[in-house]
User: What shape does this take?
Amino acid sequence: MSVLPSAFNLFAVMTVVGGSILLAWLAWRYYFDTPWTRDGSVRVYTAQVASEVSGMVTAVSVTDNQAVQKGEVLFRIDDRDYRIAVQRAQAALERAHAQLTNMRAEADRRNQLSDLAVSAEVRQSYESNAQAAQGAYDATVADLANAKLNLERTEVRSPVTGYVTNLLLQTGTYANIGQSVMTLIDSESFWVTGYFEETQLRRIQVSDPTDIWLMGYPDRPIEGRVESLGRGIMDPNSAPGVAGLPSVNPVFTWVRLAQRIPVRIQFKQLPNDVHLAAGMTATIHVRGRSGAARR
Assistant: This one.
C-alpha cells in the first residue's frame, strides 16, 4: 500500500517541476519574442522664449503651468522708446518724401527744356540728385518699417501651443535681446523614448504598434507606434582619461551586459484625460505587426 503514495508524490513532484520548467520556458520565449522595457520616459520639445528687443518688462500676462495658444501675448516690454522711434521714422519719411518730390520736379523741369537752354551735364546732375533722393526715401521707408516691427516686438507672443513651465519672470525684470526669460512646453510634441536592449532591436521595426503604460496610470494602456530607432550611444571607453590616456572600464570576460538603445515611440493619439508631463516613467511593449503585447 505504501507504493501508491510514493508514486503519487513522485508524479506530483514531476508535474510541479515540469510546469515550472514550462512556465520558465514560456517566460523566456516571451522575453525574447516580445520586445519590452520598463526603462522609458516621456519626452517633449521645449521653446525658449527670448525678447527680440531690450527693455523693462512692464507686464507678465501668464502664470506658471498655464496653457497658452500660439500667438498669445506672454509679456510686454516698455514700449515708450519704441513709440518715439516710430514717430521719428515717420517724420524722417515725410522729410524724405518732400525732398524726393522737389528733386524729381527739378529734374523733370530740366528735362523739358531744350538742349539750347540746358546742357546734358546739367540734366544728368539733376537726375542724379533725384535718384539720390529716391534712395534716401526708400531707406526711410525701411527705417519706419523696422521701427514699427520693433514696436510690435514689445509684445512677446507664444511661438507654440503648450504650457508655461518654471516661470520666474516678473514685472521689473530687464530683458536683453536674445536672452531666454521663459520656457514653454510644446503640447503637440510629446513622445516616449524607450531604452531597449540591443538584443531586442532586430524584432523592432519602424511603424510597429506599441502599448505604453505610464507609472501614474498603470491600468490605462496608451497606443503608440515606433517612429525611429537610435543610431548611436556614447562609448565610455572613448573618453580620454588622465594624461590623455584611454579610460577603459574593467569587465568580466564571462559576463557581457547588453547596451540599451533609445527607440522613439510616437503616441497614436494623445489622451485628453491623462496628465502628460516630460520625464514621466513609462513601460513599453512592442506588439509587432501581428503579435499582441501582454503585461
In short: The CA atoms of residues 226 and 265 lie 5 Å apart. Residues 290-295 have pLDDT under 50 and may be disordered.
